[in-house]
Every structure is written in C-alpha cells, then in structure tokens.
Amino acid sequence: MANTDALSHQRAASRPLLQPTLKSHLAYTLLCGLVIMLMLSLVRLALLLYNSDMIGDTPLSTVAEGFLNGLRFDLRVVVYLSIPLLLAILSARAMAARGLFRVWLTLASSVVMFLGLMEMDFYRDLVFQYVKEDPKTVLSMLWYGFPVVRYLLAWAFGTWVLSLLFKGIDRLTRPRGEYSSNVAGLRSVAPWYLRGAVFVVILLVAVIAARGTLR
Question: Has the keyword Transmembrane helix been applied to this entry (predicted)?
C-alpha cells in the first residue's frame, strides 16, 4: 500500500501542469476583470438603491449620469487590480502562476468590496471633515452605529463567492490536451516578440479604460 501511494505521488510529481497559452491567459484576465466589474457594479447599485430616499427631487438624468461616472471609476479599479495579470503577459512562467493570481484577485477584490459595503449605511452621515479632525469619533460611529455583524457576514460570503468564481475561471481557461514536458510546454507559448506586441496593445487599451477618455 505504501509503495502504491509513493508511486502515485511520484507520477503526479513527474507530470507537470500544462503551460497556459497567451490566448488562455488573455481569456483568464478578461473573465476575471468582468467578475470584478460585476461585483463593483452590484455594490454601487446596492448603494444607490439603499440610499434612494436621499435622491429627493434630483432629475433621473443626473442620477444616471452620476451612476455612469461611478462605473467609469469602477473600470479604473478593475484596470489597477489587473496590473499583475497584464504584466505576466511578458513572461511565460508568470502566466503559469495562476495560484498567486487567484490569491491576489480574491484578496484585492475582497478589500474593495469591504470598502463598498462600509458606504452602505455610513454614507448618510459621513462628513470627510470628521475624518481629518476626529478619526477616533469616526471609528466609534462606525463600530456602534454600523451593522457590523450583518455586513461582515455579507463580506465573508461575497469573498467566498469571488474565490469560487476565480477558481472556476482558472479551470475554464486552462489549455486542454495531453500533459507534456516543461520544454514542450514552454515552446507552445507565443514567442516573446508576439507577447510584447500584444502587451503594448493591451497596455494602450488599459490606459484608455483607466482614463475613461481618448484625450
């Protein structure tokens, strides 16, 4: 039995994972970015609906314009969170570090979601001048006036869902086919000059998305 287990472990260790191709890495980056954008949009929509009584007589066009401006800001956040994945295009080994990418995306998205959830209730009473003059009072207001347990549970659940989504995207975008050697896996990756050209194009698109304008 021990020999069988040792043999199975040896076979698993000698069988390397498939090297992600440029196409699969771009698909992974795009889908992860869409998940983050969807999460941010849902948090922003929840913030709008939860505080809808503060809209008053504000024209719908003004509210829609403000919401769209918020989505532009969310798109900028997505670009910033995707920087490690975009830089990985330049390295075949970096593109294979899916585990690190999942950890980064989950933690970073979780922090952003937590900040968004904090706004849900505290947005009504928050005056930024308080933060500058008396941060202790602000923290006290957050702890005693903010539904801490409810939002912590929502945050934990959202983080768990995000981790599942990023893991599912990882599996979905991994290359299919037979296991191959490390040499063969590296040869299947696009050459450096092609990856460099794609990186320049993606960088331009990311800059435009972050700026929100062509000017």
Answer: yes
